[in-house]
Amino acid sequence: MNYISTRGAGIGQRHTFSDILLGGLAKDGGLYLPNEYPKVSADELARWRALPYADLAFEILRKFSDDIPDEDLRELTRCTYTAQVYCNVRDEENAAQITPLKTLGVEGGTPLSLLELSNGPTLAFKDMAMQLLGNLFEYTLAKHGQTLNILGATSGDTGSAAEYAMRGKKGIRVFMLSPHKKMSAFQTAQMYSLQDPNIFNIAIEGVFDDCQDIVKAVSNDHAFKAQQKIGTVNSINWARVVAQVVYYFKGYFAATKSNDERVSFTVPSGNFGNVCAGHIARMMGLPVEKLVVATNENDVLDEFFRTGIYRVRKSSETYHTSSPSMDISKASNFERFVFDLLGRDPKRVLQLFRDVEEKGGFDLQASGDFARVEEFGFVSGRSSHDDRVDTIRDVFEQYDTMIDTHTADGVKVAREHLQAGIPMIVLETAQPIKFGETIREALEREPERPAAFSGIEDLPQRFEVLANDAERVKAFVAERTR
Ligand SMILES: *Cc1c(COP(=O)(O)O)cnc(C)c1O
User: Fold this and answer.
1) I need a surface site. Which of 79, 182, 296, 391 has the fewest CB within 10 A?
2) How far is the CA of 428 from the centre of ligand 1 (A)?
3) Residue 314 catalytic?
């Protein structure tokens, strides 16, 4: 398996899975993709149906990472996807499934289900990929005798998923910036209660954008970055995308009895990482009918899939919504899909994403490329705060099931795309406890709290408050990596 950039670099060169694992963007600013998608045969699909999650993950990942010996990869997937790690399930007896499928009911002549992806340590689907990344990083660094200092900014979900994945890992430190006193008590406790010596929570006296600017400033200091071995774990990381391919297969098997059936998935989307994995599963040959992209009020992606116009927003135009993990101004993984949509033409991708930088977007309607969106199974919809509240209430009343705000956006949009006889699977991307305010608004009761999290707000917290100053952060990192 060789990896190439969506903008053309690396074509004709050798880039293995391990080569690109620890990096971010390709040198030309593009995103890495395999030079072709591995195909799944009918025999394989039949055999995979019965596999436990960890072994299914092994079978899928080995097609993308042929430079990791099979016995090592099998060990890595088996220690990542365990019932102990994914223990925060609705029904205790489902823990072994890692991603249980919960059927809500029959609507529009077809079962409507939730694929539970948020049973991991931070109660959001990002754990599914990040936990694997932690083990892959530790394995690869040890092999080459290297170390890595991960620097990130978070307003909640990503940062805590990264910390819980990297805690205690050899050769890795995490420096995570978060806005001082701006996160919910629950999210703050989740991150700051970690006592592991390789995890550094840095509370910046500023807002989330200030934290992001500091990360950018530090990353642009190339000498510092190289000397301190600074890396990131953001959503463009290829290993994160490919780890997410697995649960589309798992969800398909859970919702069907035979491989002649087709299903559709609805994906609450922000940076397009999750649904990009669905696209890859479909390209590999998984019988997927529709991939439904659900957005909130930040509807960059819904606009594209309705009109063919991709128009990124300024940060001043980005709304702060009650499904905050989907509050994006541009979708950082979208370029991967555009590459496939344009028949894998790197020159055109380069031009289009130059247009994004210079003119704020591009229009594929006129060129005829947009018509191909249908071939790829994509449709979309958007949801608002009122829709979210209504859907949380409705699903609770009809099905006795509490869902979070992002999943509610998914259910709202899924209902607009039901087709009789084709099961609809909505990806459940977080648990309600993370977004308690909207649950209280919708249901006038407290969100359900998994047992492991009782009293988490009372635990001692470990964090450092720093001024909103990149130099101060650099000094802090340098002192701790000596
Ligand atoms: C990150 C996140 C999303 C969006 O996923 P993308 O891969 O960025 O599209 C949706 N819901 C929750 C809860 C998330 O944390």
Assistant:
1) 79
2) 10
3) no
